[in-house]
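Posting for a labmate who doesn't have an account.
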Amino acid sequence: MSKIRALAAGVAVAGVTGLAFIGSAGVASASDGNLYAYHGENFNNGNGASCAWSLSSSNWADRGCLNYVGSVWNNGNQETYDSVTLYEDTAAQGRGASNCLPRGHYYAYLSQNRETFSNGHTMYNNIASHVWSTCGK
């Protein structure tokens, strides 16, 4: 019986932890097919706006996120491509410095400069466009 209680407690903690993360992201838990970009780190809107796209964008100025992003999340679903390719330049659309972000993945702290484009430049406040894609294929 104690094993069952321990398992139930573990499931409850995991569920609460998952809900806490989803709440901090400020979006629905289900995949909605969008790419999200936030001015703040860790999906924080408190110090800036957020942007969302269901289609590719050749210029993030259209939503106020051009070169002004602290975190980004690919919340794509099975109806969208597997990945989204983020570009350093506007209108790159398949050429130029890029970074592939698989479906369901995110970069929460771009200011730590761990994530870079293919040319080695940091992604923090430096993303200008994106294309839904299948990276590496």
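Reply:
Got it, the structure tokens are right above this. The radius of gyration is 17 Å.
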